[in-house]
Amino acid sequence: MVLSKKKMRVSPHNETTTTSQALAFDRYSLTTHPLVLTEGQRRVSVARRQLEVLALLAQANGHVVSGATILDKVWQGAFVDPGSLTQCIFLLRRALGKLRDGSEIIETVARHGYRLAPAALHKNGPASTDRRRSAPIDFSLPRGMAEQDQFRLLVESIDEYAIYMLDRAGRVLTWNAGAEKNKGYRASEILGQHFSRFFPLRM
User: pLDDT digits over 43-54, tens only?
Assistant: First the structure.
């Protein structure tokens, strides 16, 4: 990985400075202040929370970062379903594409966490600009559709992971295909029910 730092002065009358890191991996460059991901001269549009997760992985330089560490540093103690991190990684992988050999840039290390794939790390400077890129997949949705509707459709279509939302009282608000597949309840059966239904009492 190529890592460079520069100091950014907050104001001419304040000596406080912020260290900005430029993290390079595969064909991408990620600056931390401001938090921006670029591919060559093109800025890659990624949600801020996803960029924060990516920055943690890039700063770890190939070492595994546990899910608990990511949740603590990015979500900062807020109560979130574990599926939120899984979904975040899914969206990052979709935005980044794959390595030349077809493998993921972000690897899942079973029961440990996530890391940037060793093949994505730069050992001798930035990767060659003529590296082949996987053909992009069209994830476009109908024009004019609100962003929240696009997000809802994306979540509902995921069938490998259970993703659902609870209200403050613990009642189920949303239910995707993965939740139905993994938990065994249809949306009509579980929406509005308390999450304790997933954990029946054992005598």
Answer: 998 888 899 999
Q: Which class would CATH give 21-123?
A: mainly alpha
Joined together, the tokens standing for residue 9 give 């002065």
Q: What is the pLDDT of residues 137-173, one digit of tens each?
A: 344 444 454 555 556 666 666 766 778 788 888 888 8
Supply the pTM of this predicted model. 0.55
Domain 21-123 identical in fold to domain 145-203: no
- The third-level CATH classification (topology) of the domain covering 145-203 is Beta-Lactamase (3.30.450)
